[in-house]
């Protein structure tokens, strides 16, 4: 209910500074929480008021702040206004009211706390397409695909939580010369049995082998080229084989995505382009954007001066399509509005070109397309060696987590310890990945990732499970109407102060499409919850106090769980 308090402060302030309430609301923020806080407050930077309103005098910000503060009167919501020398106005909130409003609003909306906040009301709500994961059939699944998968899932979850209709698309690398090789290779080295029992492994093996043999055996290269030509001509026999490869790959991936808690509405892919490529190329040519070069290729001139100093090739000299050609063609065929594509940062230029070409084609929505680039992960490997299959990484993370749980004897009364280990391990991978700016590279380290103490996904899960256990163990049930007046101690206030920030975190996350704000928020929430859990016993406290504390812990658990879900983490109840 941060918005209730922000509104009240805005109302007061608008009377003395001339700005409207609506303009003031976004300028009001919750001060960062600290441990053992005795007061909770919202703050306003006077420089922000000056920037927005000419009648607020510039000059000594401290003095201006003091002048404004002198005109403000305490009321039922704001008990006091404090001025700091850096020109910050702090509105000290009535602690009883804060406890009551926050806890009531979390109870009323346990899974969606904060999403209806005023602060978020001006955000557009649209149909949004998020394209992510997008691995290549028969090729390695590298760390970049894992990043794309979890980051894309986060963006989709966040957009959805904030009221957008989200369409999740997996744009598979399912077309191109590699299928020529794969088709030709399968005829020579393929095994139907292996394709049944270990599809991804077998397709990958065939692909590696045929690539190797093709280097010394020209007949293979020409067979591959022939196979691909048959595909481009949509010849039924070749298409049948291709479709089979694609179907079993999708089936296998779906099993793995399920373990990651990820789901797609559409499996699209580069193959989707084929029927319409000619039309789009024709259109570009007709409009004068596509030019044939001296080398016989066809390219779109993207330079300012029209001298081909910046161009994008769309047709090879032998007439075949490229990765970019296929991308240009695909989006218009699926009903999109705001596509967000996720790949590592090496593809940024590709997407710039893609969006420029889509604009040239007159697609209005091209301006709202975004590429979300991310950095590289170094050293992500498994005991089998270099990462080839996502499944190996998941298995290894799960096994390592299982060992840790057995060692610390926490898994003894779990119904399904493997599943718990997997969920915790996945959260560990996610938090490790989401801690820094997405564009940064990072070094992967199994020991760091899976630490139970410290700022890890394991710690988030551990906090969640502990809160669940606290709520489970209580003799008194959580009853609806409670007297929250006991929750004015420093530990409760610190938690409330922090919870006040949740909508700001949602806003910052969606503006920047970066998960690190949410990660940091949840880690701090967990640290504050750990102190509160230590200091505020439920058992043995007078009934009203015990009830109030239970409500507090219940609310913290709800917010922790919804934040975790947005990140793509499934919270565990026991571990
Ligand atoms: N399959 C590509 C790769 O592995 C990523 C596809 C990204 N999306 C796109 N529309 N190009 O690098």
From TrEMBL:
Family indicated by similarity: Belongs to the class-I aminoacyl-tRNA synthetase family.
Pfam families: DALR_1, tRNA-synt_1d
Organism: Danionella cerebrum
Sequence ranges assigned to domain DALR anticodon binding in this UniProt record: 460-575
Enzyme class: ligase
Reaction catalysed by this enzyme: tRNA(Arg) + L-arginine + ATP = L-arginyl-tRNA(Arg) + AMP + diphosphate
InterPro entries for the chain: aa-tRNA-synth_I_CS (IPR001412), Arg-tRNA-ligase (IPR001278), Arg-tRNA-synth_N_sf (IPR036695), ArgRS_core (IPR035684), DALR_anticod-bd (IPR008909), Rossmann-like_a/b/a_fold (IPR014729), tRNAsynth_Ia_anticodon-bd (IPR009080)
Function (record text): Catalyzes the attachment of arginine to tRNA(Arg) in a two-step reaction: arginine is first activated by ATP to form Arg-AMP and then transferred to the acceptor end of tRNA(Arg).
Gene3D superfamilies recorded: Arginyl tRNA synthetase N-terminal domain, HUPs, Isoleucyl-tRNA Synthetase, Domain 1
GO cellular component terms attached to this protein's record: mitochondrion
Any GO BP: arginyl-tRNA aminoacylation
E.C. numbers: 6.1.1.19
GO molecular function, one term: arginine-tRNA ligase activity
Entry keyword set: Aminoacyl-tRNA synthetase, ATP-binding, Ligase, Nucleotide-binding, Protein biosynthesis
Name this polypeptide is given: Probable arginine--tRNA ligase, mitochondrial
Superkingdom field: Eukaryota
PANTHER family documented for this protein: ARGININE--TRNA LIGASE, MITOCHONDRIAL-RELATED, ARGINYL-TRNA SYNTHETASE
């Amino acid at each position: 209910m941060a918005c209730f308090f922000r509104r009240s402060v805005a109302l007061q302030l608008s009377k003395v500074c001339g700005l409207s309430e609506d303009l003031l609301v976004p300028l009001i923020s919750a001060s960062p929480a600290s441990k053992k806080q005795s007061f909770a407050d919202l703050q306003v930077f006077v420089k922000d008021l000056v920037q927005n309103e000419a009648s607020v005098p510039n000059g000594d910000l401290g003095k201006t702040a003091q002048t404004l503060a002198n005109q403000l009167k305490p009321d039922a919501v704001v008990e006091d206004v404090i001025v700091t020398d850096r020109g910050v106005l702090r509105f000290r909130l009535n602690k009883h009211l804060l406890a009551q409003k926050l806890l009531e609003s979390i109870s009323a909306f346990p899974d969606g706390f904060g999403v209806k906040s005023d602060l978020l009301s001006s955000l557009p709500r649209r149909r949004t397409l998020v394209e992510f994961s997008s691995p290549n059939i028969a090729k390695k699944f590298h760390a970049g695909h894992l990043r794309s998968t979890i980051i894309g899932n986060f963006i989709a979850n966040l957009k959805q939580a904030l009221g957008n209709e989200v369409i999740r698309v997996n744009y598979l690398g399912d077309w191109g010369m590699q299928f020529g090789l794969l088709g030709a290779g399968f005829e020579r080295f393929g095994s139907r049995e292996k394709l049944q029992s270990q599809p991804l492994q077998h397709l990958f093996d065939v692909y590696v082998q045929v690539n190797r043999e093709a280097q010394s055996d020209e007949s293979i290269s020409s067979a591959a080229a022939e196979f691909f030509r048959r595909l481009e001509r949509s010849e039924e026999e070749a298409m049948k084989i291709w479709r089979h490869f694609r179907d079993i790959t999708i089936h296998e991936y779906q099993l793995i995505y399920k373990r990651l808690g990820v789901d797609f509405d559409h499996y699209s892919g580069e193959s989707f382009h084929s029927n319409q490529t000619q039309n789009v190329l024709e259109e570009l040519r007709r409009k004068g954007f596509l030019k044939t070069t001296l080398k016989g290729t066809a390219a779109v001139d993207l330079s300012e001066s029209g001298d081909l100093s910046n161009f994008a090739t769309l047709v090879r000299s032998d007439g075949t399509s490229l990765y970019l050609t296929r991308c240009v063609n695909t989006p218009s065929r699926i009903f999109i509005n705001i596509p967000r594509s996720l790949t590592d940062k090496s593809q940024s230029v590709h997407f710039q070109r893609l969006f420029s070409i889509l604009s040239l084609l007159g697609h209005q929505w091209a301006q709202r397309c975004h590429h979300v680039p991310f950095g590289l992960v170094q050293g992500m490997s498994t005991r089998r060696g270099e990462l080839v299959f996502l499944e190996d990484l998941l298995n290894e993370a799960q096994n390592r987590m299982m060992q840790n749980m057995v060692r610390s004897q926490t898994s003894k009364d779990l119904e399904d310890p493997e599943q718990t280990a997997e969920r915790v391990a996945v959260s560990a991978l996610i938090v490790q990945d989401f801690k820094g700016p997405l564009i940064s590279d990072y070094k992967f380290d199994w020991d760091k990732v899976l630490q139970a103490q410290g700022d890890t996904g394991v710690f988030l899960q551990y906090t969640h499970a502990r809160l669940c256990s606290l709520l489970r163990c209580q003799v008194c049930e959580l009853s609806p109407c409670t007297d929250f007046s006991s929750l004015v101690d420093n530990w409760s206030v610190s938690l409330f102060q922090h919870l006040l920030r949740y909508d700001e975190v949602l806003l910052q996350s969606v503006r920047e499409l970066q998960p690190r704000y949410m990660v940091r928020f949840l880690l701090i929430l967990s640290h504050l919850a750990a102190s509160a859990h230590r200091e505020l016993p439920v058992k043995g406290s007078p009934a009203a106090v015990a009830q109030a504390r239970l409500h507090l812990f219940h609310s913290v658990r709800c917010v922790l769980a919804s934040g975790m879900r947005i990140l793509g983490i499934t919270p565990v109840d026991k571990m």
